[in-house]
Amino acid sequence: MKVKRLEELRIWQQAREFARAVSAILQRPSFRGDRRLKEQLGDSSVSVLSNISEGFGQPTDRAFAHYVTIARTSNNEAISQLAVAAWRGHITEQELEEFEAKSCVMGKGMTSLIAYLRKTDQKERG
Questions:
Q1: Which ranges constitute the DSSP H helices of 26-92?
Q2: pTM given for the model
Q3: Does residue 76 contact residue 45 with C-beta atoms inside 8 Å?
C-alpha cells in the first residue's frame, strides 16, 4: 500500500466528510426530542471514521481489513438510521438520497480496500 499517512487515504477522507455532514444535521432542533436516534446516528457515522483510523494503525493488512469491515457495517448502520431520520421528518428525502449516494461510494471503496488488503496480506505494514 503506497499510502503513508492516514489523511492520504481516500476512504478516510470520505468518511470524515460523511461524519461532518451527519454532525451538521444532528444540530437541527428537531433532533432534540429524538435523543436515542441522534446518539445512534452520531455514533455510527463516527464509527466509520474511527474504525478506518484504528485499522490503519494495525501491524498487518489482515488486521486492517478487519477494521475496515467493521467500518463498512457502521456505514450500513448509519444509512439505515438516516432513513429513520427521514421517516421521522428530521431530514428530507433529497438529503437522504444524497447521504445514500455518499454511503454507496464509501461502501464500494471499503469493499475494494478490503479485497486489496486480503490479497496483499502483508504481515508487517508501515
A1: 35-56, 61-87
A2: 0.92
A3: no
* Degrees to nearest 5, angle at CA 78 with 10 and 59: 45
Distance CA 15, CA 29 (A): 24
Instruction: List the domains of the chain with CATH numbers.
Output: 6-120 (1.20.1440.60)
Q: What is the pLDDT along the chain (126 residues), one digit of tens a residue?
A: 578 899 999 999 999 999 999 999 999 999 999 999 999 999 999 999 999 999 999 999 999 999 999 999 999 999 999 999 999 999 999 999 999 999 999 999 999 999 999 998 777 655
User: Is the four-CA dihedral 108, 109, 113, 119 of positive or negative sign?
Assistant: positive
- For residue 30, the 8-state DSSP code is G
Residue owning grid cell 446516528 = 41
Q: What are phi and psi of 97, to 5 degrees?
A: -60, -40
